[in-house]
Protein 1
Amino acid sequence: MSRRLKYISRIKDDFDTVICGFNGVISYDLRIQPEAVDTLIKMYQNDKRIMLASNIGWRVNDLFAFLKSNGVPMQIFDAMITAGEMSHFHFRQNEDLGKKYYFLGNYQPQTTKETDYIEVKNIAEADFMLAETDVEGINLNDYTSLLEQALHYHKPLICVGNDTMLATTQGVHDCVGALAEQYAMMGGKLISFGKPDVRIAAYLCENIPNFERSRCLIIGDCMATDMRMGNTFKAQTLFLTGGVHQMSDPSPQQIDALSAEYGLGVDYYAETLQW
């Protein structure tokens, strides 16, 4: 059964390595959560290795710069990876999908920066569609007709980040993972990057001496991505209930029921990250 955990310091002797998410853990709407950052600092001071794994479409350098400019001491992180960095690497190494893409968003895409890929405004001319996780979420209804067009032309969808929901200070919004799910249900081809891909956890921990998965703690606010990666990696898990699932003061039974819906198990849960 899941255990309620208000203060993570209570189990500090049970883990050596931490993999935590960005949005829903240390940030909401690009608003840094001071208490969560203070908790990470306390972990660092207690000789824990801290890794950051985010499904955001940003490159790692962009995330690094954002955190630093908002007063987060970057020396606390041993490593970080984003879905945006993973997809950018794919674009640089693979040209099998073609060079023209149709972007499902209202801003400048991040993952194709510094590449020779070309954005087009007509789906029929594109080789594939591209969608990136941002910090605002999406309205699925805005993309229904575009997905129907893409399906007609047999265009694959590259989804950068698999989050179906996004926690903000204004509530929970749909995210590009939901868009990808809808397209897959329609029969479209889907290529995705980001959690819950267990290779992310393996990559972050591969150079840690004497690393033990059982002494790794994965922290996140999403069952489908964070907790699934934690279970697959056979790590300990801390589920933050105040994120995308918006659970207020749940019982262990409620957490177990929710995790069972996803075919998962959760070791600990808390509303927010506190030392």
Protein 2
Amino acid sequence: MDPKTERSRRRGIYLLPNLLTTGALFAGFYSIVAAIDGNLLGAAWAIYIAMFLDGLDGRVARMTSTESDFGKEFDSLADMVSFGLAPAVVIYTWGLDRFPEYIALWARVGWLAAFLFTVAAAFRLARFNTSSKVDDKHFFQGLPSPPAASGIAAVVWLSIDYDIGGIFALIVGLAVTALGGLAMMSNLRYLSFKDFNLGSRVRFGNLLMIPLLLILVSLNPPVVLFSMYFTYAVAGPVIWLWRRVRRSRNSKGTMRA
């Protein structure tokens, strides 16, 4: 291949992961605009679209050997908009739109919970970017911001599809927002799934997991997606408790020996 053509191809291919990141940023921005316009369902969907594109850009960059410092910084800034600011705006406008009878309560605590989520996402991303040493690439420290944002999107989607309102829905929305923020700032360990390589060979039977997952989600998207978020979010405390129990048993076994 002509060296000039090869250099041109290499310069051009760097556009691919950054275009995906731009798409994720656009989805996050659209989510904010849709929420302000009162299109809360569209705002929730946009967060999931941003998650999909965000999951692709890094993997595409690694598969095509187009990783760069610019791409990492751009991805982090896009994540702050799509998974830090957008979910906070969505959940706050959701409360204003769905709970007029509790407007006084929501005005006092709703924006505080939304801000907690936003600053937690910023803290989580800053800690991830400045971490010079990773103890175990199989785990994240703290709940990642995309799953935390998906919890808010799922709550909004469920409330709209099933016309859920009242103080119960308000409490659930506040809990998912506030606890999601605290989980992002915590030291809990969450599976990273970084060992899942799209370019690696897998057994033919494992391919069935993809259509089965799609079928499962299509049966009842908001319920299944919220269940997936809840399972992943709870996995952090479960892993912490399991490691603590195992460490306690090992220490007792050592003392007896």
Protein 3
Amino acid sequence: MIETLTRNTLIERLEALLGPKGVTTDAQDIAPWLTDWRGRYHGAALAMVAPANASELAAIVRLAAETGTPIVPQGGNSGMVGGATPDSQGTALLLSTRRMNAIRTIDAAARTVVAEAGVVLQTLHEAVAARGLRFPLTLGGKGSATVGGLVSTNAGGTQVLRHGTMRALVEGLEAVLPDGSIYSGLATLKKDNRGYDLKHLLVGAEGTLGIVTAATLKLVPALIDRAVVWAGVESPLAARELLLMLEAQAGREMEGFEIIPQRCLTNVLHHIPGTRAPLDGAHRWHVLIEFARDDAAAMPPEQLAERVMAQAFELGLIQDATVSSSESQAEAFWKLRDSISEAERAEGPAMQHDISVPVAEMARFIIEAGATVESRFPGTEVAAFGHMGDGNVHFHVAAPKGADRSSWSDHPGKEISAFVHDLVVAAGGSISAEHGIGQMKRDELARLSDPARLMALRAIKQAMDPKGIMNPGKLIAF
């Protein structure tokens, strides 16, 4: 615990370093940033600091290292696992990257952009679109998620099928390491064999090894047009067969393939204003597919979608389908998918699991694991949805009707999550596909990981952050 004199001296030194815009100690101003997006974790902070550039951030880290002060980095505070929420002791600095929001350069020829950590994803999309380019990663929280957070959690989103996760899109990084030194690795090098790749260590490290200050990101040509399909299918197995058929027929023009159960659609239609069902009648399962064109020589997406979905209908892979006739309708289809978590939160308590299994086993896992969980915990209802092309399942277990929202997530919620994670590991999967570990899954990672993985994670953390000041209590016990 920092003594009062040390605390006051530390804040004075921070104020001298950052000026009045860079340090906040007022409890009311800090309060909104001390609770995670889901409202599960609540913390306290000594102060909130907001550096304007990498040099200021490095000076903060050096001061923190000198005084042994923990630092919790935070971007848009839209994470799902409590990774950007400090603990309750009130000794940590909450470090906001939101002032570091410059897009430094856009290189149209090289198809890269250098964006600082605080750049909001939606802002990045708009900036590169003005240059005829596209950053091919999007997600429901694009209006608040920041570049630094996306890098630090190795975010996925709905376009992984074609473009990969954030790791595949990061060409270079700039970051402040735990001793306050600045790692300058923004250059895009196709070949670099200077030992360990610090870029890949920092991607997905959740701020436990350093704080990302800027990233060089890969861009692709802007879309010429797209077509979004909503289709009803009988089962996840039928959806899997449809995916294989479309991969063979549509190739790289297929950017997204999402599977959605009727339960999720029903919740969205009930809780989210302005939404409507794309198809007449109910279907047990739905798929949302996006075909996109960035090459004028390719077949127009609407024509491609009509052709391949007609084949799918003839093969009995779909029950019904509709193709978006306008950009607004395409956005309306995606709004249904992006609103699932919001609608579920309004519906009642649920245990959410962001997991992955081998792609070829995803359909079977959804069916079998769902039935197993519902049998083991009577009254619960499983809603499994997600990115079928990459094995990422959002496996949500809703509480029985009438369950107490305030207590159910602890009991039996934690028992349910442990049971689900055991099923995932038995299937050769991962307990975290795209949201990270944070504090929510830290103990489960320690319980379920093989000794070699844990040894390596702890050794890397110890070597790079021997004082344990970088986002303590997250990812790995230290």
Protein 4
Amino acid sequence: MKQFSLRISVVLIVGLSLTACQQRTVRPGTSPDTTGNLGSPLVQPSPADVYIGLSGAYLREGLLTEAFKNAQKAVIADPSSSNAHYAQALVHQRLGQLDQADTSFRRSISLDARNPVALNAYGSFLCAQQSYEDADAHFRRALNNPLYTTPWLAWHNAGSCNERAGDIDRAESDYRAALRTNAGFAPSLLAMAKISFETGSYLSARGYLQRFAEVASHTAESLWLGFRTENQLGDKNQMASYSLKLRAKFPDSDQAKYLKSIE
């Protein structure tokens, strides 16, 4: 069968639940570090927190004007809050205001150099600008914080960025690290299925796709990848199963249209 090469889109994942950030504000005059230089400093509640939460909620709903207003209010309420500037950076980025986003990310990190959420988000931002080495350095800085509660996000983003940069070996290593910290993280399972397929490890690709299907709903990309994988393995029944699901769930997708043209 003629092969149709469709790369699964690389997704750089940034948490938008701003109220769940691990760091808030280090208050002047408080102890600069109560964790033995391992994690982030002891933090105090900030008057910016309510606006940060609102900005994140509006951003998730695509209400950019309200997200922007609340991010601005957060910075006004507490200019020393790392997460207030992080929230502002995310809104600027969504609005396509890249210079302003870069400035806000840098300000956020200058206020808390160990804020893993901001470091991960800025790494994703830099990767999108093709600043791959700088992006990778920020992912590693996020991962150096042992108090980071979702390290698989930074590991996955590091893998995605290395994949974009063409370093497949390093990307695979990062995806595997993400799965060591969260074995059911769907984006990394799908990424590993794709890499396994592209390197000819079809049984591994099948295994990763099976694990992916246990924790997430199939996408057009994953179903198409499954179809191609089973074609390589010679399992006609599984090929038919993937084909039926792809055409039923995503009839207007490019993958379904191509599948129709070759069957």
